[in-house]
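dumping this here so i dont lose it
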């Protein structure tokens, strides 16, 4: 799949997209997700175990995917 499609990176909060999606065409294997917090907590899902903890945000309906993959 990597050879055919670019990597699209999005942020979501409470099942809604926040900000704009980023299209990463080159060297996207070197990017690592990160979270910086001050006096709060967060729960993240980077897709490591999608069977027991699936994504709540339906990325297949994301406008960036339609724009770049169609």
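and the seq i came up w/
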């Amino acid at each position: 799949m990597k050879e055919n499609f670019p990597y699209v990176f999005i942020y979501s909060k409470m099942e809604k997209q926040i900000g704009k999606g980023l299209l990463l065409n080159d060297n996207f294997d070197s990017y690592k997700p990160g979270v910086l917090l001050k006096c709060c907590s967060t729960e993240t899902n980077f897709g490591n175990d999608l069977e027991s903890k699936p994504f709540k945000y339906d990325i297949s309906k994301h406008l960036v995917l339609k724009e770049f993959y169609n």
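The chain is about 10% helix and 25% strand.
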